[in-house]
């Protein structure tokens, strides 16, 4: 995204609210989502600006939670220059020193899809993305935009993990990671290692942040995000250091 191109004002964009639906993260609650009109393609810089306001991307959609009476979803990001891996994370980086990394455009790849389908069937058979399908995968993780990327993690020729991310002006935004759930790779903690890889990539590119999406304190599946410290949270329109016990 070139900063020399005139920016499209956010006030000129159209946004819509979904009808209330079951929350994917907190049992017994309803959620409402605010999303950018899918017929309105955001101009240069708009995605960057919306990310600073807590928006995320899923496929072609930019969205954020907009739930009445609930603020459990908190946008979080890692400040790259201040991040220091924990002892456990340093061990993990050493354990995965034999893993190679390759960045590719976010286009459909049969090998990627096979790993995704196996991951969903094995790890998330009770979730919204089960059963997996090629159409679902394409809609969710492929996008014909220069900023949309896929990070491959390989051990020799074997594909271990794929992490979808976007490269923005002020950071990398982690979209989704799927990995080989086979027991021999469990000790590699590939989901966590993928985030560490994005932090190092952001550092190499001179980008100040890695955005991790939403963190919900009561949601066990999101607890891993607390291990990246320091962590910043979006409080209204301001990003502040997240204080954890």
From TrEMBL:
It is an enzyme of class 2 (transferase). It catalyses: N-terminal L-glutamyl-[protein] + L-leucyl-tRNA(Leu) = N-terminal L-leucyl-L-glutamyl-[protein] + tRNA(Leu) + H(+); N-terminal L-aspartyl-[protein] + L-leucyl-tRNA(Leu) = N-terminal L-leucyl-L-aspartyl-[protein] + tRNA(Leu) + H(+). Its EC number is 2.3.2.29. It is found in: Cytoplasm. GO terms for biological process: ubiquitin-dependent protein catabolic process via the N-end rule pathway. GO terms for molecular function: arginyl-tRNA--protein transferase activity; leucyl-tRNA--protein transferase activity. Residues 111-235 form the N-end rule aminoacyl transferase C-terminal domain. InterPro entries: Acyl_CoA_acyltransferase (IPR016181), Asp_Glu_LeuTrfase (IPR017138), N-end_Aminoacyl_Trfase (IPR030700), N-end_Aminoacyl_Trfase_C (IPR007472), N-end_Aminoacyl_Trfase_N (IPR007471). Residues 21-91 form the N-end aminoacyl transferase N-terminal domain. Its main location: cytoplasm. One of its GO terms (cellular component) is cytoplasm. Keywords: Acyltransferase, Cytoplasm, Transferase. Functions in the N-end rule pathway of protein degradation where it conjugates Leu from its aminoacyl-tRNA to the N-termini of proteins containing an N-terminal aspartate or glutamate. Belongs to the R-transferase family. Bpt subfamily. HAMAP family: Bpt. This is Aspartate/glutamate leucyltransferase. It comes from Halomonas eurihalina.
